[in-house]
Amino acid sequence: MSVNKENVAKIASLARIKMSDDELERMVPELNQILGWVDQLSEVDCSNVEPMTAVIPNELRLRADEVNADPKTGGDRRDDVLANAPAAEHGFFGVPKVIE
């Protein structure tokens, strides 16, 4: 596939980019070269290649999920936390209505 000046003008119009005729002419060979590289990539046989998410292997570091791990911020501290709230309602932070 190759592009011509009219294709580049249409792409620029869709992208809302104002380009002069000289700029359009300069973009034609650049876009054709990019499309050539994409065609060249399609020739590579990658049927035996495993899909990957990163170049280097990463493993997610996990920690134990403990509710009361920290005595200052752990569980069973609802009343202490709500003491700082300007308005507490039914054990939750009270906030003004946004939608009527």
Short structural description:
This protein is 37% helix and 4% strand.
**How would a crystallographer describe the biggest sheet?**
2 strands, antiparallel
Total number of β-strand segments? 2
Strand content: under 5%
**Pairing-aware structural class of the strands and helices?**
mainly alpha
- Strand order within the widest beta sheet: 1-2
Helices and strands, in N-to-C order? HHHEE
Query: Which range best describes the helical content: under 10%, 10-25%, 25-40%, 40-55%, 55-70% or over 70%?
Result: 25-40%
What sort of overall outline do the alpha carbons produce when their principal axes are compared?
Answer: elongated
- What is the helix tally? 3
Q: Overview of this structure, please?
A:
The protein is mostly helical and 100 residues long. It has a domain of 38 residues: Orthogonal Bundle (Histone, subunit A). It is 37% helix and 4% strand. The protein has a two-stranded antiparallel sheet. It starts with a helix and ends in a 7-residue tail after the last strand. The model has no long low-confidence stretch (mean pLDDT 87).
Summary tags:
2 strands, two-stranded antiparallel sheet, Histone, subunit A, 100 residues, mainly alpha
Reconstruct the topology from this structure.
Layout: H1 5-14, H2 21-42, H3 78-82, E1 88-89, E2 92-93
Antiparallel strand pairs: 1-2
